[in-house]
Design brief:
22% helix; Helicase, Ruva Protein, domain 3; elongated; N-terminal domain of MutM-like DNA repair proteins; 2 domains; 292 residues; 4-stranded antiparallel β-sheet; single chain
Length: 292
């Protein structure tokens, strides 16, 4: 399969899969750990004739596309253009299924991440099993790197287990904390709020395929996967950016997630002062402020 076709396949798969919970994964001859239902695809990259899919828990699917190998994207229930016997991997969401045909090797591995590697010491408490938040609170407040960003510490499994990329975005939004806050600026109240919020989200969603942290959006999530949409709390525009060594997408609302953000002046800037930006943002449908 030409590299240009691999890139086109990756683009189509991004539209269909990224930001949506996976409901099923199949790979008859898979080598490596199996991606689990409920996880979300975060990135899809074409690297020459290799197409890589990465989930929010750090698992990466690598498919080498050569000869007649290719990925197709179908709407749910649509007929396939190739036979089931040629299937080598499939990723299904509620609305789409991406199918890899005839790849000679389908392999998964975990993205290396020193912040989460168990070799650095004992793992933190599992928030789905413990009712006492004090240990995780103490680990947050005593984190050795006081200048570490809160967004990075939340996915360090040596502080608390279970918080992946989806939950770190949702927890920070619920607590109205800036992802760029430094861990050394947290108060005991902040740490307790973070741990309690994360524990509640994890327990409510434990065992569910479709994770939800709010009832006010169609996808059940407040910020994750909603870049460019309005915030349900302040109606500002949700932003996203790749962060960290692995480039996972961080989603946040710059309008209401401003607590402990050292980058901001005392009076939080509402929008870009450039006149063109002001005009564009003011014309967005949700920027009209009703009296009710």
């Amino acid at each position: 399969m030409p590299a240009a076709d691999v890139a086109r396949s990756a683009s189509a798969m991004r539209t269909a899969l990224i930001g949506h919970p996976m409901v099923r994964f199949d790979a008859p001859k898979l080598i490596g750990p199996v991606p689990q239902a409920g996880r979300m695809v975060e990135t899809i990259e074409a690297r020459g004739k290799h197409l890589e899919v990465m989930w929010d828990d750090g698992i990466v699917l690598d498919t080498h596309l050569k000869g007649r190998s290719e990925w197709h994207v179908y709407r749910k229930g649509s007929p396939w253009r190739r036979s089931w016997e040629q299937l080598r991997a499939s990723i299904q969401t509620d609305d789409f299924v991406a199918v890899c045909f005839d790849a000679p090797m389908v392999e998964t591995y975990r993205q290396p991440d020193r912040e989460r590697h168990p070799g650095r010491g004992r793992l933190g408490p599992d928030l789905t099993k413990t009712a006492d938040p004090s240990e995780a609170v103490d680990l947050l407040l005593s984190y050795p790197d006081r200048e570490a960003r809160l967004r990075d510490v939340l996915v360090d499994q040596h502080v608390m287990q279970g918080v992946g990329n989806v939950y770190r975005c949702e927890v920070l939004w619920a607590a109205e904390l800036s992802p760029w806050a430094h861990i050394g600026d947290l108060t005991h109240h902040d740490a307790l709020l973070i741990v309690s919020t994360a524990a509640k989200m994890l327990r409510v969603n434990h065992g569910r395929v479709r994770r939800a942290t709010t009832q006010h959006t169609s996808g059940g999530l407040a910020v994750y996967g909603r870049c460019g949409q309005r915030c349900i709390r302040c109606h500002d525009t949700i932003e996203s950016r790749p962060v960290g060594r692995t480039g996972r997408m961080l989603y946040w609302c710059p309008g209401c997630q401003v607590r402990l953000d050292r980058r901001l002046p005392p009076e939080v800037r509402e929008m870009d002062p450039h006149p063109a930006a002001v005009k564009y943002l003011n014309e967005l449908p949700w920027r009209s402020h009703d009296d009710h």
